[in-house]
Design goal:
two-stranded antiparallel sheet; globular; mainly alpha; 14 helices; single chain; 332 residues
């Protein structure tokens, strides 16, 4: 038999044999078909959201607007602080002091779902809120400042940046890694005294023993590490003044350099240090218009009136499970 002819047969037969053994034909081996089905893309584990590369921002007028918005988030104090270039309307903190890495860090209070979920109804205001309203809430609460004109160049740039960040997030969806982690509640009140020890060991080096932060002495604008209490910090209306928010935030992000799944704190330490931080004095704010439907107040909102009989102290420090259970009972 001609050797070349034999090689030709083998070249055809071997791939066919392989195909017959591995291809999940309609009437083929159900075990193989099931195994193959288990490898479909829809079953691949979801990966945490990753921000687009800032180097990909186009060099156009629209791209310049996005870059300006990013800079406003990263260097808010330069534009809006006590010595601000545009206005003097904030306490000197930067937006990225709370929304880490200019709002791009997974589980770092990022902006990944802003464009995909706004406008949306929020219980805190009892209204449907725009992105502009949400940005101004941060300015008035976390930066203890004043709102921007929604049509200002700066607000339009911030909104453009948030749309650019969330351009690949499906409308109505929240990707993995959005916002802040929710920690399992403690079966006891969070303890500020225990938290004071954690703060001294893990936080004081950067934020100062007095919680006043470290000013940026290179640029003389804003903070290298922001104040956690005192007149220069966020006020009582800020989201991080709620214990669950602060606990989840520090668990995944503090001390500086840690990340989700790579924490230096236990859950108990995170709850306790959050309790210590939020037990310290900070600016006041009129909250009379917040949570118009009192039954919608979160378990850890520390200001009454409440739809339950639990004290303001328990609403501030916990334990929170009994509050949640009572709320579920009322709904049933």
């Amino acid at each position: 038999m001609n050797r070349n002819w034999v090689y030709g047969l083998l070249a055809i037969a071997v791939p066919v044999a392989i195909w017959l053994n591995v291809s999940p034909r309609k009437n083929g081996n159900p075990a193989i078909a099931k195994q193959t089905a288990n490898l479909q893309p829809r079953d691949v584990p979801e990966m945490p959201w990753q921000a687009p590369d800032s180097n990909s921002i186009p060099h156009t007028a629209a791209g310049d607007q996005v870059r300006y918005g990013r800079d406003l988030i990263a260097r808010t104090s330069y534009y809006f602080g006590p010595k601000g270039k545009v206005a003097h309307i904030s306490n000197g903190m930067n937006c990225q002091n709370c929304h880490l890495a200019a709002g791009t860090k997974p589980w770092g209070n990022n902006y990944s779902a802003v464009a995909s979920t706004y406008p949306r109804y929020r219980d805190r205001s009892g209204t449907v809120e725009s992105i502009e309203k949400r940005v101004n809430d941060c300015l008035e609460r976390s930066l203890n400042g004043k709102p921007l004109d929604s049509n200002s160049r700066e607000m339009r740039a911030i909104v453009a940046y948030m749309h650019w960040l969330g351009a690949n997030v499906e409308k109505g969806k929240k990707p993995l890694g959005v916002g802040i982690s929710s920690l399992k509640s403690l079966n006891r009140p969070a303890d500020p005294e225990k938290g004071k020890i954690v703060f001294a060991e893990k936080c004081g080096l950067c934020h100062g023993a007095d919680g006043a932060g470290q000013p940026d002495t290179i640029t003389n604008v804003g903070y290298l590490y922001p104040p956690l209490w005192g007149p220069g910090s966020y006020n009582i209306g800020a989201g991080l003044y709620r214990l669950s928010r602060m606990a989840g935030y520090v668990k995944d992000n503090m001390p500086y350099g840690v990340s989700h799944g790579n924490s230096q704190l236990t859950d108990e330490q995170a709850w306790d240090v959050a309790a210590f931080i939020n037990a310290q004095p900070r600016p006041d704010k009129d909250l009379s218009k917040d949570w118009p439907k009192i039954d919608a107040k979160p378990m850890d909102y520390p200001f009454g009136p409440y739809a339950d009989t639990f004290s303001a102290q328990q609403h501030k420090f916990g334990p929170f499970d009994p509050i949640q259970q009572a709320k579920a009972g009322r709904k049933n």
